[in-house]
Amino acid sequence: MRVAMIGTGYVGLVSGTCFADFGHIVTCIDKDAAKIDALNKGEIPIYEPGLQELVAKNVSEERLFFSTDAEEAVKGADAVFIAVGTPTRRGDGHADLTYVYAAAEEIATLIDGFTVVVTKSTVPVGTGDEVEAIIRKTRPDADFAVVSNPEFLREGAAIEDFKRPDRVVVGTDSAKAVDVMRELYRPLYLNETPILVTKRRTSELIKYAANAFLAVKITFINEIADLCEKVGGNVQEVSRGIGLDNRIGSKFLHAGPGYGGSCFPKDTLALSKIAADAESGLKIVDSVIEVNAARKKKMADKVIDFMGGDVDGKTIALLGLAFKPNTDDMREAPSIDIVQKLQAAGAKIRAFDPASMEEAGKLMQDVMFCDGPYHAIEGADAIVIVTEWDQFRALDLERVKSLVKTPKVADLRNIYTPAYMAEAGFDYTSVGRNLNV
To answer: Which residues are catalytic?
Structure first.
């Protein structure tokens, strides 16, 4: 089948590349000429394991193309995906649909023959109705159907998630559109992937509800971690104890400095606004937003307390800056709040992240970005592990001790055990494991 993908951001680039790898002919379109030129040269604008190789493979096999001109690709397409950004709108917290509606207007002028227009972007309930109205107003004669097909990609594991998803959600009333979507996703039949067909508004809500629920799990276990520190429990054992219950499950029950990234902060806020506008408030989601925002700053307080209540003039080494490993995404990363509060208290920051330092440099001032973990910790008064990259899980602790001023480690991801670090001679603190009470 022929696919046009409007937008070459994270979702558009990964989705377009994977569709091409399924055997479809895909053209990814973007207004940013510099980005398209870079993609045509094999330069990938995001860090995602395996993506560069998959793009190169499908470009060389002439199934994947990049262009600034939508006309030819859209006219010949069986399906046109809208995969543009929907950032939080300034001032009111709603999702900004400017790019979605602009894409719909352009698509309307170009479609030829029956075309399925698919919203892949995360959009509020009712957006598909508006997209349909825009296209119908521009082209009353057009033969098309608007489908909601939300993405459920985890940064760092996006290719695996696309090719082996838990489910594919398709929201439409059009049987003809369902047939097109089933054909697009037909390679997943071998994996017996469930394809859930719903009304369009239901599909739009599923994406928000899924992300909000995961954000609730993260925030819940973070608050349990705080309780563990007060009463002498071990949050990792609590997580395992409740996660073994099939009704709860073990995923997203890892205590840490709070969630960040491109999805959870934006989508929980947007869902809260949708609910408020519908006069059906979501108090749990509202609380999660509030608690998570406070948690990031609370982690800086934890470090300051660990340093005896005073970090003025002290050098602190941060290991990890991205909101999670295997990505360069710094959007809403806990490290931003941690760095700002530590600097406000007078600390000097040295930092290393395997992928995100270029992005971090746009968001952080007066931080020394280092060449590796050992360079970052050289001369530090304390080490703070913020992101659980694999290369931080087995540091040479003897070498670490020889480089730091004082052997102090604040492990905000619990990648080491207190007993192991004590035996290695470190003053160590972690999250939710105050076993001295």
So the answer is: 263
